Amino acid sequence: MDFSQYRRKAALTLAVLALSATAACTSVFRNHGFVPPPEDLALVTPGVTTIAEATQIIGQPSSTGVLTGGGWYYVQSRWKHYAWREPEEVERKVLAVTFQEGVVANVETYGLQDGRIVPLSRRVTDSNIADVSIIKQLFGNIGLSADQVAGG
Fold first, then answer.
1. Beta-strand pair 103-111/71-81
2. Stretch 45-49: mean pLDDT, rounded?
3. Domain-embedded: residue 81
4. What's the number of domains the chain is made of?
5. Cα four-point dihedral sign 63, 64, 65, 70
6. Which residues pair with 110 in a beta bridge?
7. Alpha carbons 3 and 11: distance in angstroms, whole number
8. In 10 A of CB 54, how many CB atoms?
9. Strand (E) or helix (H) holding 91
């Protein structure tokens, strides 16, 4: 192999390595969730559109409120994945549709710049066990019949 062929192979190998390294460090964007498009939202009129009509126009929500009928929340995020780094959320849209007496009361849109916008309620189930030790809870039903365990 003469020197010029060696140089061409080395240059080709170097170009492939450089291209591979560049491709490995390219950002990859991923989309998650769904927010109805503005043209569909224009068909939803607060004070007029019912829950059934809203379902037909903008579809089922990705999540709903849990208190007093709450509302509907549509969430869409765009994440940037770059090499070994932790993924970064670069865009977020949240559409909040609230209802009052079965009719749309309000439609609001929020973005990533709005920060934390959906108030979360921590629902904790009250314990009905009063003054019972862990040992009694674990072994209290040993020797009881099924009717006694069920409270019968």
1. unpaired
2. 91
3. yes
4. 1
5. positive
6. 94
7. 12
8. 22
9. strand 88-100
